[in-house]
Structure formats: structure tokens, C-alpha cells
Amino acid sequence: MSKKISESAVRRLSLYLRTLEELDRAGHATVSSGQLAARSATTAAQVRKDLSLFGSFGKRGLGYTVEELARALRDILGLTQPWRVVLIGAGRIGSALLEYRGLAHRGFQIVAVLENDSSKIGREWGDSIIRDVAELEQVVRDRDVQIAILAVPVAAVQDVMDQASRAGVRGILNFAPVRLKVPEGVTVKDVNLVMELESLTFALSQGL
Amino acid sequence: MSKKISESAVRRLSLYLRTLEELDRAGHATVSSGQLAARSATTAAQVRKDLSLFGSFGKRGLGYTVEELARALRDILGLTQPWRVVLIGAGRIGSALLEYRGLAHRGFQIVAVLENDSSKIGREWGDSIIRDVAELEQVVRDRDVQIAILAVPVAAVQDVMDQASRAGVRGILNFAPVRLKVPEGVTVKDVNLVMELESLTFALSQGL
DNA sequence: CTAGTATTGTGAAGGTTTTCACAAGCTAAA
DNA sequence: TTTAGCTTGTGAAAACCTTCACAATACTAG
Questions:
Q1: What's the CA gap between B134 and A197, in Å, rounded?
Q2: DSSP assignment of A60-118, as one string?
Q3: How far, in Å, is the CA of B206 from the C1' of nucleotide C27?
Q4: Cα–Cα distance measured from residue A161 to residue A147, given in angstroms and rounded to the nearest whole number
Q5: Distance between CA B44 and CA B61 in Å, rounded?
Q6: Residues B164, B183: Cα–Cα separation, whole Å
Q7: CB contact A111 to B (< 8 Å)
Q8: What is the 3-state secondary structure (H, E, C) of A38-65?
Q9: Does A17 reach chain B within 8 Å, measured CB to CB?
Q10: What's the CA gap between A188 and A182, in Å, rounded?
Q11: Straight-line distance from CA A126 to C1' D3, in Å?
Q12: Cβ-contact A83, B194 below 8 angstroms
């Protein structure tokens, strides 16, 4: 695909999808851009513009078919295939992720949990057994893992990322508060709580 | 303050601060916009423009004093005062947050942990004792809590948010995958893992 | 004191994203 | 069939954000 899609547009698409799934559960068959906007904290024009980046999904005068638009968004976001994920780091964050049903529901399959701490290796953890992080490259290759979630300490994360990308992982979700250096062809998304809290305190301080 | 500062600029400031703290630990006394940019994955011009939104912190020909700029950024981000935080939800996410040392290090004090599940109430948890979420309004008032972290299920989160903001909380960090309706004067930041993963799968799908 | 090198702060230019506004298209009702 | 009422898709305008480019300034060496 040629056009460049902004990060914020993609995040909105993800949000629209969630909203559509709620509407579907609530029994709505169709929805207008205005309704979708109101439930997604944006504007009708923004919704239509975002969708128009990928095609034409509605009917003039009628709006969008909830199911149809949801299917189109899943397709756009790459959610029609299941994704195989390896979770690295069996600490609290890893635990929260493993337990979270929302991941499986969206097609993210955690195929292995890896850990450095030898006292944890071999233990059962949810449906998985914790394995040695040394097996990372083998697991990625054997199970054709596409995404790695890194929930490891700052000191270890660059090294683990290097191994993962060498083994063929294409996407990284990084929880360590550090900017990773990544090779060509690997995409990283950072989740950084302190940054979120600081943008909150900035807003609060401004208000005073 | 009159000028409107973009969300992305604020996030970069937060990142610069972290970079400066690393530089400080590494013994650097001064830094140029170029060096700061290289370590923060942006450009020298962007760094200077971001800083210029708030004043003039460097010396021409010399760059910035690491300590001084860090202090200025802490001031801008509202980190010179400690923030009193209540954590609502003693599940996995709450547990990960409570344990995370980075929060305390940046001046975020978790003054109480609240929970709905009566089987958890009263238990010790880290340094805290889990209290009943029914006590939310009282805790907020008694301890002058400014920020609430919501790590509760989707079904409960709007209600909890309403109570928190009625009691006087001004900032919310929300982990539930739902868009909260908030009253005037309350700021919300959302942390949404599925959205991050989906923007990752979008990028990966595009690449194919 | 002067020349040379480094680096900031900032208007202006360039680029991107959001909002506006309206023609085109669809349905229902008369 | 015609009219009235909605709603989409999209160029154009407006707003916003990033990059460029350079005058101003600081230090060092000779």
C-alpha cells in the first residue's frame, strides 16, 4: 500500500472497532459516522476521513452496517489472521498480560513464556510452562512467532530484543522505559506508564 | 498559561528528562540539542523547538547543563511536588503498578489501594492494606488524593471514575479498554494494550 | 584582540492532520 | 414519481506540527 497512514489514524481505527463490537453486542445493525464519533470521542468528519483512507464502507443516507464495517476494520488492522506471540518476562506485568482475556479474544496467541530467573523456569503459569529465555531463538523459529512482548528489566531489554529480531520476530511490544535500537524491518511499540503519568501531571499543573 | 502545548511535545519532554537523568548518572555535565536528540530518537531542531515553548535553557555555543535542564523539565512537567495517588483494583495490573519502583522514584505516592472483592479486602499487599472501594470518597478527601489509577474491569470503571471525580480527583490513569465520560476539569489518560498491539499488527500487515 | 568553531533560539517554510462544507446517493412516504 | 430527510465521501480550507536555515552568542587558541 502506498499512502502513509498516521499513527493516530490507526489508533482511532482500533477504537472504532471496539466501539463497533460493543454496538454489535447491544444489537445495533447499523451506525452513522456521527454515532460512531460520539462513542469514540472524535468527530463525524474524522471518522469518515479515517475510513476513506482505505475505501468506501457506508451507504449514503444510511450509514454503515456494523458487522460489515467491523469486518473491514479487522481486515485493515491485520486481525483476520491469528498472531503468534512470545511473552518474555514472567514478572508482574507478564502475569497481568497472560491473564488478560482480551488478547486471546483478538487473536493474539501466547505460544510461550520465557524467563531469565532460573527459580521460575519450569513452573506452571496459567496454561503455560515457563521456559528458559535461552530458548528464545529456537521457540521463535519452531513456532513461527511474529511478535514478542518484552516485560523485562531495562538492563536486559536491548539484548533480548536483539535475539528476538535475529530469530525473525517482526514486531515488539516493549514495556521497559528505554528506547530500543531496532534493525530494519522490525517495528516497536512502547508502553510507558511513567510517561503517561507525567503527561497527566503536566496537564494538572497547567490547570493550576 | 496561554499557549497550547501538544500531547506529543509533552511526551518528548518526558523522554528528554529520562535521557538527561541517564546522562547525569553517566557523569555528563552538559549536553547539546543534537546529543539529546540522538538519544531520544528525534532531531536537534525538534528538541530546541520543544524547549523554546517554555523558555530558554541553554547557552549558545555550549549547549545545556544536564542538571539544570533536568530541573527545568521537572518543573515544567509538574514533578517538583509529590503526587498522591490512589490505586483502585488489586488485580494483576494493580499488582504490577504497586511493585514498580519507577513510580515512587518520580514522586508518585500510592497512598491507598482499594478493591471491590471482599475476599481481598484487609489483606496486606506490598506496604499497603487493601481497603474497600466504598471508602474511595473518604480516602480521597482525607488524604487529599489528586490522581486515581483505575485498574478495574470495564463494567465497573465508569462508576468508579464518577465517584473518584466527585470526591475531587483531578487526574485519571485508566487501564480499562473503554472511553470514559469525564466532567470538566478532570483529565484522563488511557493505557490500552490491545490498541498498541493492533497498531503493531497494522504495521506488520502493511509490510507484507 | 581576532579568527575559528560550536551551538542555541527562532522566524519562516514545508508538511501533515483535522475540520469544513457540500454534491451525490439512498430511503420512505405521499 | 416527486419530495423531504438523512448520511456518506471528499476536495478545499484551516489548524497544527516539524524541519530548515541563519543571526546571535559563547568559548578557545593564537
A1: 25
A2: TTTBEEHHHHHHHHHHHTT-SS-EEEEEE--SHHHHHHHH-HHHHHTTEEEEEEEES-T
A3: 38
A4: 11
A5: 14
A6: 11
A7: no
A8: HHHCCCHHHHHHHHHCCCCCCECCCEEE
A9: yes
A10: 8
A11: 64
A12: no
How remote is the C-alpha of A31 from its chain's centroid? 25
| A46 alpha-carbon distance from chain centroid | 22
Cα–Cα distance list, A108 to A24, A80, B62, B133, B197 (Å)? 21, 11, 50, 32, 9
Query: What are the pLDDT digits (tens) for B4-56?
Result: 899 999 999 999 999 999 999 999 999 999 999 999 999 999 999 999 999 99
**Grid coordinates belonging to B53:** 515553548
Question: CA-CA distance, A100 to A105, in Å (whole number)?
Answer: 9
For cell 482505505, name the residue.
Answer: A54
Per-residue buried b or exposed e for B140-167, using 16+ beta carbons within 10 Å of the residue's own CB: beeeebbbbbbbbeeeebbebbebbbeb
| Pairs of CB atoms within 8 A across A/B | 175
Cell of A80: 483476520
Q: Which tens digit of pLDDT belongs to each residue from B67-104?
A: 999 999 999 999 999 999 999 999 999 999 998 888 99
